[in-house]
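Justification of resources, computational component.

The compute hours requested in this renewal are based largely on the per-chain cost of generating structure records like the one below. Each record pairs the submitted sequence with a full structure-token output. That output is archived, and it is also reused by downstream analysis tasks.
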Amino acid sequence: MSGEADPPAGEPASGGPERPGLQISGLEVRYGPVRALRDVHLAVPDGSVAAVLGANGAGKTTLLRAVSGTLRFHNGAITSGTVSFRGSRLDGAHAAAVVRRGVVQAPEGRRVFARMTVAENLRAGALSVPRRRAAAARERVLDLFPVLAERARQRAGLLSGGEQQMLAIGRALMAGPSLLLLDEPTLGLAPLMAAKIAGAVRQINAQGTSVLLVEQNAAMALALAERAYVLEVGEVTLSGPSAELAAGDEVRRRYLGIGAPNTDRPVGTDPGFAGEGHERTGLARWTA
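The structure output for this chain reads:
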């Protein structure tokens, strides 16, 4: 671990060349004797969105836990490899230290504090943030999700599923992250609400926050991300620019529900994000 002081969450260090974002190299994670991730390599450059696709049990949530420092809460551990953000090692760091370095996770299942109000949930996300920055973060969140201002005094447990997801993302943003980890943000949501969440992710990224997105809605994830990774049984088996993965037969068949290259794209997919004639030179297949 570096002995240098941590920069404020969400703010780059002053001076020097632009730093890389998230870098994962050769990552292996185990839960006791069970190996959940093997030799995972992944990168999220500053200012970008990267997506991780895969079936249930592929290791997607474990990957986010390894980055956010929460593996130990689930009896997991990194057994080899490195995780770094902007040159600072995260593997082995406690979750609070990871947040101080600007990396914050919005967990799967939303996990809002049901008995607390919306306003209290947001304040909980900014416990370690100076008051002035917390006020600016709150203004950003309410501008992004106006419904949270309307529900400020309502208990979080009484919100709809979509509103709870907005609150979970908003609570994470209160810490002012430079990198936001999103675990299945549209899980269980109606298509219209899922589209609103997707729009919010675009806006969050446009405001300068990098995003690592784990999502089973592959069409949406590929439309949002610049680069994507396919996890299968704990290993990255395919990676490359999202447009090229979306144009590839294997991803189209397994994750987009399209059986032939010339069939129509799924409803909700941006027709501009993948071209039928796209050269697939940017794809990389991983082998043991």
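Residues 37 and 244 are 25 Å apart (CA to CA). The mean pLDDT is 84.
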